[in-house]
Amino acid sequence: MDIFTMAIWIGTIIFLVFSLTKNKEKTKTALKMAFGMGKNMLISILSIILLIGLVLALLPPEQIAGFVEKQNVLVATIASALFGTITLIPAFIAFPLVGTLVDAGVGIVPSVAFLTTLTMVGVVTFPLEKKEFGIKFTVVRNGLSFIFAIAIALVMGVII
Amino acid sequence: MTKVTKILKENLFTAIIIIAYAVIFILKPETSITAVGNSGYYLKEMLMIMPVIFVLTALLDVWVPKETIMKYLGKKSKSKGVVLSFLLGGISAGPIYAAFPFCIMLHKKGASIKNIVIILSSWAVIKIPMLLNEVKFLGIKFMAIRWILTVIAIVIFSWITSKIVKDEDLPSESTSEPEGVIINRNSCMGCSLCVKNYPELFEISSKKAEVKKYDFILDDEKLNKAIDNCPVKAIHFNKR
Q: What ipTM did this prediction achieve?
């Protein structure tokens, strides 16, 4: 386990002990909630991991990097932003995945665009959002999020 | 038989993946071994971080006083409302679809469109436990810059949204809700806390909570506990 993961564990355990001494009932609620959420997501997370493993076996990260490199940065960025809007991957799998891709040589700009649209813009969740907020709100929010995701990615490319 | 089809329907995605693996194992055994190896790496990484992220998320969710925050999200709230909206989105547990009904509830309580967009966006992108995860895989510099840029972007486009979308554009309240205990299954994330609090009344079906048919007199204490504890505020009780 790397130092960073260890730090999160230690921090959380301290928080947990502190929480236990302050309020046992609340802590129990939190633990039940955490367990329930985890149990419910486990199968779908496992499936997504297996899918990613398969895709990366068929399309090695180096090959993806080589392909992305040949494209115009803007085209690659918009394409990966689009890809991010249609996929539904939990963020904690997305980070190691993007880590792998960046290590293999995929540029920062398309990677950031993918990461941001992945969570902020949703084609899959669009009908649900429309039902609750109406079409105007949903189109405006998702559209602006998409445009700004690309802007964030381009600015990050300049800074890093 | 119906049970088998039901399970298959709920786990269709998983079934497709397993079939894909079987096909590739027959056609290209080596590729399938690489695939399992790749999956193993992500599985290991995930198992190291996932339990702690869930616990941290749940702890933040129960300890940050959401009810107090909600009072400051109206149109006159200005910068305090903006900061609190980021905080509320950043600490809340649950997937983005759980945020939609939650935000509609806030809007009915007077939260402005601008603050709602901030909550939704920060709910999606700047989860505090997730930021730690991002540092682990992509480095602190990467995370910090992305975080700052994202916050700036959200502030700008939430303002733009509030100029384009008015309160009237949101669907008005649905006509009279049915009586009794209701669960909004669109926002439920299946954490099963309500079942643990009141097993006689709630059950999990198709990965989401459901109200059982009941003819007994409701235990107010247990019911209120279930309502209060629900992390996405999906349970409602309309008195008859």
A: 0.85
Domain with B161, as residue range(s), is: 64-169
By C-alpha distance, the chain B residue nearest A58 is B31
Predicted TM-score (pTM) of the model is: 0.81
Instruction: Enumerate long-range contacts of B139-148, CB under 8 Å, 24 or more apart.
Output: B141/A160, B142/A108, B142/A160, B145/A156, B145/A159, B145/A160, B146/A112, B146/A115, B146/A116, B146/A152, B146/A156
Residue B57: inside a domain, yes or no?
Answer: no
Domain C-terminal end among B169, B196, B228:
B169
* pLDDT digits 0-9 by tens, B130-144: 888 888 888 899 999
Task: Give a yes or no: residue B201 inside a domain.
Answer: yes
CB spacing of A57 vs B193 below 8 angstroms: no
Minimum Cα–Cα distance from A113: chain B residue: B146
Grade residue B175 by pLDDT with cuts at 50, 70 and 90: very low
